[in-house]
Structures
1.
Amino acid sequence: MPLNLVLVADTHVPKRARDLPAQVWSAVESADVVFHAGDWVSATHLEEFRRRSRLLVGVYGNNDGPELRRSLPETAEITLEGVRFAMVHETGQAKGREARCEARHLEADVLVFGHSHIPWDTTTPRGLRLLNPGSPTDRRRQPACTFMTATVDSGKLGDVRLHEVLRD
């Protein structure tokens, strides 16, 4: 049976938004596994994710203070249905990203990251899939706020989708 995943990053609650849009919370609550690639901003927001998620995998970001850094790792790794995931907040500039990520995450099949608020979905020459879900609360220079969903089944990542966040 496939696992349903939700990928988010850069939620910045309560600085960029008071809360996540209902569409995002609904996706989180129905997912088997939720990945959050940092910049939560408040420990209360982390606790709300923990409460609403069946399984939460998270890392801290550059806007996360000491309390969140004590609660979350800088890098997370998990294997789901034979697919090896790694997650970090920041991967550096876009130029050269694939080569840097391949060198740093040799064992991973998928790297989830955030920081830029720019959705990203590429595959490196070695086959490492790089996924940035953007931000569901702060679109910056993007046309819309976003998050991602995906599935994992029988050792394969599939059905990766970028979702535009609808305004509540």
2.
Amino acid sequence: MPIEGASVYILLCADGSYYTGLTRKDVETRVSEHNLGINADYTTRRRPVNLVWSAHYAQLTDAIATERQVKGWSRVKKEALIRGDYDALPALAARRQKKGGAPSG
């Protein structure tokens, strides 16, 4: 059942990779769909998946912007978000920018 706004979520896949997605459904329902292989191209081959982070946004546009941003993050930066280590996020972005030359945030 659709809910107001949308949620962004990160799944830990069986192969150790992370999948970042967006849903207007209840997050637990969407995770179940991933585990059943429903509308889940990437995760179907990497089941089972476990929800490791999610955030709900009242505005769909905010959720879309967050999903795009997080998808561009390094694994280390995603893991800081999952841990709730928000203070580390700017430093991880700065470190990646210095290494690669171009901003990645």
3.
Amino acid sequence: MFGKTTKLLVAAALVTGMGTSAMAKKVYKWKLATTWGPTLSPFIDAPKNLAKIVEEMSDGRLIIRVDAANKHKSPLGVLDMVKGGQYEMAHTASYYWKGKDINLLPFTTMPFGMTAPEQYSWFYYGGGMELMEKAYKRHRILSYPGGNSGNQMGGWFRKEINSLDDLKGLKMRIPGFAGEVLAKLGVQVTNIAPGELYTALERGTIDSLEWVSPSMDIKMGFHKIAPYYYTGWHEPATELQYLVNQKALKKLPKDLQEILIIAMRVTAYDMYIQNYHMNATAWEEMKKEYPNIKVKTLPKSVMDAMKKANKELRAEMSEKSPELKEILNSQDAYLKRVRAWTEMSDYLYLKDNL
């Protein structure tokens, strides 16, 4: 009758309600490293909220110190820090580890893949959690969904894209697998540090860039320079991840383990809805201040070419890794299963009511 999450919540509440009289109040102190800076909302908010919830639910028995990237100085080193035990936890994204372990790539998002609700459904009811546990096991780490940005925008462009020819030689900042797709079509892909992006776009060092979506783009000011804002295709459901050291988790009492797992799930969903609200608010402000922003969708010829390149690259990667092939096949099969309902419930509703 009750789902697994409900049972865990009830169990944790009962255990926590016993108070310190039922068990010795031993305090466990953990450290969590983030890939994000201290002001990068809503990404940084998820682990901060996690620490608050865990401390309250555990009656102060589990304290988590959150260290942003400016403190530990290694934003893309958090996987190794958790693996090595310097930190018990991290908050990051799996596609950053493509160079270390290609099998971790799909647990964030894939071009032309699932939307956030579809992907959450795959994680918790379609076998995704089991595949993620298998992939991270060799790193002695457990991974849990850590918050979703939803469908990210395709980027800011100084010039309109009307054909494939407009992509050839285009200088664009776009990282990860999407960058490989565009590079295959002639785009000069580059990766520039976040603090240098505005200047690079303003001075013409790059012609376009992808960042996130209105909630985070507005702080960067790209809309003041590039008037064309293209819709997304590359990151339809960017899921962040909590990484947890396996040994550290096992050392916690069972009730604290359950509290931590519940808190991760709650804060992940909260980040998703927080970001949705922030996107709506930021876009409202952008449109008001810069009414000449043009929201565009890439032409069908370009989209078809990107889908073809994406398919070819996925096939090449899958040949090299049977485990990656298993994960991608699982996602593809689940997408095929749920997309019909997404179309019925969301697409047709929006189509008839916009």
